[in-house]
Write a structure and sequence with these properties.
The protein is mainly β. The chain has a single domain (46-183), classed as Sandwich (Jelly Rolls), CATH 2.60.120. The protein is built from two helices and nine strands, in the order H-E-H-E-E-E-E-E-E-E-E. It has helices at residues 3-12, 60-64; strands spanning 52-58, 71-74, 81-92, 96-99, 107-111, 135-140, 157-161, 168-170, 173-183. Strands 1-9-3-6 form a four-stranded antiparallel β-sheet. A three-stranded antiparallel β-sheet has the order 2-7-5, with no helix packed on it. Strands 4-8 form a two-stranded antiparallel sheet.
């Protein structure tokens, strides 16, 4: 058995210490994404300064009930960690426009649920969801809020319709959130 095969066998059997491989010992380009297993790099393994991105589709049926039933966009981190929204975007491909949009029925990113603290700027839905053509809106994260944000330890981020429900319309929303996981312990 050759030396390279022996090293591969050791690594595969997990009998190698986490600190045994030093970055300076690995040649540039030696580790590529096609060499990593599915889900091998999880949020917990990334530095807190790493901006992560998640994209979630909110169906038309979910949107019509979004005030009463906020949709989880980013899963809750482990306790001792908070999610900090850098920015977020929401888009549609167009279709049957939503109607009966009342004042204040804006989209918000919040911690935990409908009663949670805001985690970013709201998106005005008038002129957005009531359009039959594709639309996109960008919103700031916590840096765009006028007041300080108190992130919630171990809390998910949800999309919420602030007041009431929209009563008709038929197209999905694509929500993309850029965020950091910050350890608070």
């Amino acid at each position: 058995m050759g030396r390279n095969q022996h090293l591969r066998d050791i690594i595969r059997s997990h009998h190698i210490r986490a600190d045994a491989v030093v970055a300076s010992d690995v040649a540039d380009g030696a580790v590529t994404t096609d060499k990593l297993g599915a889900n091998a790099v999880t949020s917990a393994k990334l530095a807190t300064s790493t901006i992560q991105t998640v994209t979630h589709t909110v169906t038309s049926a979910e949107l019509l009930a979004l005030n009463a039933t906020p949709q989880q966009i980013v899963a809750a981190p482990e306790g001792g960690n908070v999610l900090v929204v850098v920015d977020w975007a929401i888009s549609t491909q167009g279709g049957v426009p939503y109607s009966s949009i009342a004042g204040g029925e804006d989209l918000a990113i919040k911690y935990t649920d409908a009663s949670g603290a805001k985690a970013g700027q709201d998106v005005e839905v008038t002129g957005f969801l009531d359009q039959p053509t594709p639309q996109i809106r960008l919103a700031a994260g916590v840096g765009g809020l006028a007041a300080n944000v108190t992130p919630v330890d171990g809390a998910a981020l949800v999309l919420h319709m602030l007041t009431g429900e929209i009563t008709s319309g038929n197209y999905d929303l694509k929500v993309t959130v850029n965020y950091r996981v910050v350890n608070v312990q």
